[in-house]
Amino acid sequence: MSPKNELDHYIVNGGKPLMGEVSIGGAKNAALAILAASIMTDETVTIENVPDVRDTNAMMEAMEGIGVRIKRLDRHTVEINGSQVENVNIDTENIRKIRASYYLLGALLGKYRHAEVPLPGGCDIGSRPIDQHVKGFKALGAKVSIKGGVMKATAEQLLSAHIYMDVVTVGATINVMMASVMAEGKTIIENAAKEPHVVDVANFLNSMGANIKGAGTDIIRIKGVDRLHSCTYSVIPDQIEAGTFMYAAAITGGNILIKNVIPKHLESISAKLEEMGCHIEEFDDAVKVSSFGKLQSTNIKTLPYPGFPTDMQPQAGVALALAEGVSTITESIFENRFKYVDELIRMGADIRVEGNTAIIEGTDGFSGAHIQAPDLRAGAALVLAALAADGTTYIDDIHFIERGYEDFDKKIRDLGGDIKKTADIKTAVKKAKYKLIS
Ligand code: EPZ
Fold first, then answer.
1. What percent of the chain has pLDDT over 70?
2. Are 12 and 386 in contact (CB under 8 A)?
3. CB under 6 Å to ligand 1: residues?
4. Smaller CB count within 10 Å for the chain: N or C?
């Protein structure tokens, strides 16, 4: 449900190609883990390039709730001091809404050998098991119990372990890495996730004095140290926010210079855009995407990094729904990540989902409708569809999008897109004689 009377709707008038430049913010999924990890020292840590989005603010609110002192030096820079943590039981309503709450478990267990954290919420994109987190904590010597929706982990002592992840999991890789940085001896994590944000968290922990090698490969080696110390660290640019604006250029037939990015992190995203007929120009810290005429069909399968990211799957689905010919998308990471398809069909797309594959028949274009953002990335993808659609589109529940995109509507307006936030949608939808969906 939309938060009461908040500006929780977008009105988008489509048909204008997005042109110009956009600067990308810090990576949400790196920042969430780094914020949690910063409390592992009693000294003050300064973190720069933290995106100002709902998820990072929820994480910081939860941290303040257990006594962590946080000072915002500016919109994207925070000073954190974890020396006054009074208890290790996180219990703010807010934290239940974000999946990354479990990072506090790894950080508190790693520092205090005890943590109690509500089980993660997050987007409804499929079952979000935590068995690999539990497996890793137990391997390090912790007792883990789950009661009343709260996971509790305690350990007399954390000992090194050799852990083989049964699945490639970003969250569990980061969580176990955090819990092991001050464990006795050498811990090895095999079949580790290699995402850029896994590397960013490892680099952050090493700048605090940890001894982590191999992050970014599938074997990470952690040599336990006695304590961690202060540091100043800047979060990497957000690969998925960058990818979203790259696909915005393709979907609206425009051209956008996407600044403050690491092109290496965008390789699979760029490769698929080139297959669709877009032109990509790479610079040291920017990429330029230009789209001329009809996109071409192609096939995509989401995979762990460096494969095509699951967090870009909805955005690719929107682009392929406008491409010439038939395309397929296979979602191999989550089992419920096609929730945008129903909304897109109401805008004129021709897609059918069979199991974890979407078969997409390109259409000439979309038409406006009253739709809902089903989750964070699907919501962002539907905004891109609305920007390409004929007429006006009304989008509910945009709080999902604000979980991971800072100033999303403003960045789109600065690129020439016609989008605005509003609290009241019903009057406008009725006036447009659209079918009201809620
Ligand atoms: C992180 O989620 C991201 N969230 C997700 O981004 C992203 O989609 C995902 O990684 C994959 O890249 C954050 O970083 C906060 P996983 P996470 O553990 O850690 C299975 C967004 O849009 N699995 O890598 O929860 C799981 O079911 C969000 O920003 C287990 O089986 O993802 C899934 O199939 C959405 N057991 C696969 O692994 C476990 O213990 C990958 O999940 C953990 C995961």
1. 97
2. yes
3. 28-29, 32, 99-100, 123, 128-133, 167, 169-172, 193, 195, 310-311, 333-334, 376-377, 404
4. N
Render the burial of 128-166: b for 16+ CB within 10 Å, e for the rest: eebebbbbbbebbbbebeeeeeebbbbbeebbbbebebe
**Domain match, 21 and 114 both:** no
Question: How far apart are alpha carbons 410 and 423 in whole angstroms?
Answer: 17
Please report whether residue 2 resides in a domain.
no
Q: Say if pTM beats, i.e. exceeds, 0.70.
A: yes
- Which token pair is 70? 């946080």
Co-location of 139 and 284 in the same domain: no
Confidence check: pLDDT of 122 > 60:
no
Residue 121 has pLDDT above 80, yes or no: no
DSSP 332-345: -S-SS--THHHHHH
Pick the more confident residue, 367 or 336: 367
* Number of structural domains found in the chain: 2
- Listed in sequence order, the residues at least 6 apart from 93 whose beta carbon sits closer than 8 Å to its beta carbon are none
Residue 157 DSSP symbol = S
The span from the CA of 334 to the CA of 425, in Å, is 32
